[in-house]
Amino acid sequence: METFLQQILNGLVSGSIYALVALGYTMVYGILGLINFAHGELVMIGALVALQTVTLLAGAFPGLHPVFLLLAGVGTAVPVCMAVGYLIERIGYRRLRNAPRLAPLITAIGVSFLLQTLAMIIWGREFHVFPQLVSTTPMQPMAGVVVSPLQIFTIVVAFALMGGLMLLVNKSRLGRAMRATAENHRVAGLMGINANGVIAATFIIGSGLAALAGVLFASNYAIAHYAMGFTPGLKAFTAAVLGGIGNLPGAMVGGLVLGLVESFGAGYIEHLTFGFLNSSYQDIFAFIILGAVLIFRPSGLLGERVADRA
Amino acid sequence: MTTNSTALPLPASVAFDRRLQRPLVILLALAAPLIALAMGKSWVRVLDFALLYVLLAIGLNLVVGFAGLLDLGYIAFYAVGAYTWAFLASPHFGLHLPFWIVLPLGAAFAALAGIALGFPTLRLRGDYLAIVTLGFGEIIRIFMNNLNQPINITNGPQGIDSIDPLTIAGLDLSKDLDLFGVQLPSLTLYYYAFLACVVAAIILVRRLQISRIGRAWAAIRDDELAAKAIGIDTRMMKLLAFALGATFGGVSGGLFAAFQGFVSPESFSLMESIVVLTMIVLGGMGNLAGVIVGAILLTALPELLRHFAVPMQMALFGKTLLDPEVLRMLLLSLAMIVMMLVRPAGLLPARTRYAHRDRRNA
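^ Those are the sequences you sent over. The predicted structure of the assembly is below.
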């Protein structure tokens, strides 16, 4: 029972991070019908920029409080990622909006590798240790489950951001413009909505969330690396598809479900396969879920769109 | 507008050029290793790899360029071919089967893997297909990396070494050949063996392209619904594209294993799938000549960079800021982005590829 609850907690932590990233995929897909392959790289850039800021500040002012460092890290990572996200859309995708579908997809893969290479040039190939800004010391066990403040922090922040995004999309003017553009951007244009502006805003918001997810991800795994964005990116995409791509609540549900499946899978796979497979196979769950969902229920858990659009 | 012009006669001017081109290309292909040898043995090695990539690119082009199915897990088939050779002809399991058993087996296993991937994904197209195939490639890699316990099958991340070399009719290609007093190095021998495979592949693919199958693929690529409506068995044709493409991957994987004498999961990363895709994109999707040019360019350019960029950086800055591997990745990613923005049909565009670019979301 204890391991069971523990797996739920671990699943919720990684799942809420996947959900944050998945929101970016799903927003862009909802509006442009494009899988922004480079979105995972923004997670990596967010983590590395935050790490750089924290390292510089901690070096210059040794006595600084961790909360301040964390805020400074996030405060630089988010704008930088927003700028990168905007540039990707502006330079990479805008010109291809009316091109055959293969073209933006290949560009997106190219952008993803370009960002990885640039990160490799700037930060090198080595793994960087991400500092503990929120304590990871376990608190008093509750019902036998070990919880650290960082895990609670991660879940709280992720859920707060998701709630904020839902408010933005459902209540604000920009949100209404986004929904209108997603519905049909030509008609939205006729109604006086600046579709290019809305699309740019979508990329910027999604990139900001990815940056925050990157900081949370790097804090939880205590590591940052130029290639760290790709796999979480793919998993977040899986989460978006699982929930029904283009559907915001779907992306959150998908992220949490994927996180739980992964953590249970990693925890029990050894028993289920009589020791033949072990937890190093953790990453295959996302791919298997992805394949299965696309084949059997392409509209996802909450979505209505069909795979034929792709 | 959507006619398949692959079988139309070429314009007279091109046909004239062709007459000159062909002997020139053949001559160049035959003389290449000798020229390279004069510059140093490492260049012959580069040529050998270029040919393996050409073979891979021809196979992937069958799937992506002809049938329009974007496959990002193509390197998995290369891996299947390579590991088949490693299992059946190395001390790892103590088996040393001859190449004429191992190579067809590798090709067959790869084809089966192609069908295994193709069958469940028949309904998917475009972005979704790309992502699922990518996942397939990653799953294969994860298995290669971890199947060393509890039963040691793939030897894990260490890979399998001392793989038997290619031996044709008693001639061991890994040893230098003394031909009437002329020393032919092993690398050159491999070159000609690979060249023979590439030529066979080119002939086969050219025949395929103008055959009923090739036309069916083009039809599916241009408009799947219409293709179905005129009675093309789209399921069968897609499976065939996956299987045949995978076969090419399997053969080149086997040759790679024999040539290297060593395989490890590292050689079959997602990056390699992307590399082969970039070759096709750069050269011109769907056009055989373009694909070959793309493959050779993208194998040779990083090597050229290695030889010139590093000394140049040393002279300019006194240290190497960008090592060759980074330069290679930069080159690849920029090639993909810039080509799509500037010249989406590639350096040598296929004549039918973007027949209806004005139609949105086709």
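The first helix of chain B runs from residue 12 to 39. The two ends of chain B are 14 Å apart (CA to CA).

Shout if you want it in another format.
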